[in-house]
Amino acid sequence: MTDPQITAFDGPLAAVDTECLLLPVFQDAEAAEPFDELDTACGGRILEALNSRAFTGKKRRCLAVPTTDGVAADEILLVGLGRPDELDVQTVRETFATAFAVARQRNASRVAIAGRTEVGTAAETAATATEALLLGEYRFTRYKPAPDDMSTIEELLVPSGGGAAEAIDRSRAIGAGVTWARDLVNTSPSDKRPPRFAENVRAVAESVGLACNVIDEDRAAELGMGALLAVGRGSTAAPRLVILEHAPEGTESTAPVCIVGKGVTFDTGGISIKPSANMDHMKSDMGGAAAVAGTMRAVAEINVQRRIVGLIPMAENMPDGDAYRPGDLVEALNGKMIEVLNTDAEGRMILADALAYGVREFEPSHVVDLATLTGACVVALGEDIAGVMANDDDLRGELVAAGEIVGERVWPLPMFDIYDDLIKSKVGDIKNTGGRWGGAITAAKFLENFVDHTPWAHLDIAGPAYRTKSGPLAPAGGVGFGVRLLVHWLSQAD
Ligand code: BES
Ligand code: MN
Ligand code: ZN
Asked: Which of 24, 164, 419, 462 minimizes the number of CB atoms within 10 Å of its CB?
């Protein structure tokens, strides 16, 4: 999709010159209110449609109503919100996205959406509609262009007033971050091996004004990033650590927030090789990296008023004559000795060095990492919900709350001391696996060894980072999960 034009309209709905005017209505509405004026202008057709058997106003149901000369729009699309007492912002988002898809299928390239107070303020409606359009209409076209005859929505009009214009800009920036994250996940793993992935991230990051520093394999060796290097050793493409920084004027010397994303560009499992069924999904094993890149892009474009550092360790986990092996002892950047028991537990290895580096170099106030880390987390919470594990109750609570608001749900798993025993090593400091049980938690416990006492939270996004089915807000493939959550959390005042 080329970037649609999104602007705010003023004046009566009957005068909005558009191909398709979307009217959000509740289930079993008996009056056209609050659209009485528009209903009068088109000779009572709205009320008539609301009373027809063809339309009940159930969530995400739509009905097209032809207009009369009194209305500038070519047609009206009634959009069901469901029952008013069950309305929440996720329903609004999904409903708007569905309505845009219906309007597009009806070949409308210019659409407008009416606001109503039950749904939100003008600014909220503008934000929700913008995000619903950008997320719902996203398509990945890098390897297969959209068919010529596919229509697209080129213009969206939203109600004006109360900060709508600012809300559009902000949501557009968030949409661009999510879109980029999805594109990165959907990219062929052969086209995003670490050196190339790093340069791609650098180019986009610098274009939006982020500072970017790429640590290559030689520098990583000088620094002592033994864990990152160990994982990268099985691949002919060397690992990287990409560091992005957003520091608005006046924040340069403040303690930043560090966000860290697992960037395994393809995970074969290494010597502890994975079964071949569904191994292609492991091109999404850089979903955390994509979320950090997308978030950094969005916070730069929005110019969020705080210092934020993004750290993205990148490696390809391959089996090879020089690959790291089960039994290896590997020294991480902070001097901890890791006993490798399973080369498929590679995400925590590369995160170990990135976390240790972030904490040491930036002395952050908070650290949040995102990683497609464990199948165990998907077993525990299902494919749609991310796990959150933290050493800080407030931070964990803030992330749960932010996720609920943006519709990217995360749910806590415990971090009791007893889990530490499962990863104690006899020959080193820690083992890189703690066995089958509590696998999501022992992975988080491993990471905790690399953040000192910095308030830290880990989001295991193995489930929601990649979808096999399409939904109203995302087609199958990369989701960009975490971008909207992080931007929301980072935008709140401390
Ligand atoms: N990338 C995988 C985790 C994963 C699994 C992500 C399924 C998305 C969907 C990770 O590197 C991995 O292989 N984890 C192992 C850890 C185990 C060896 C301790 C796992 O979950 O089996
Ligand atoms: Mn793995
Ligand atoms: Zn992995």
From this structure: 419
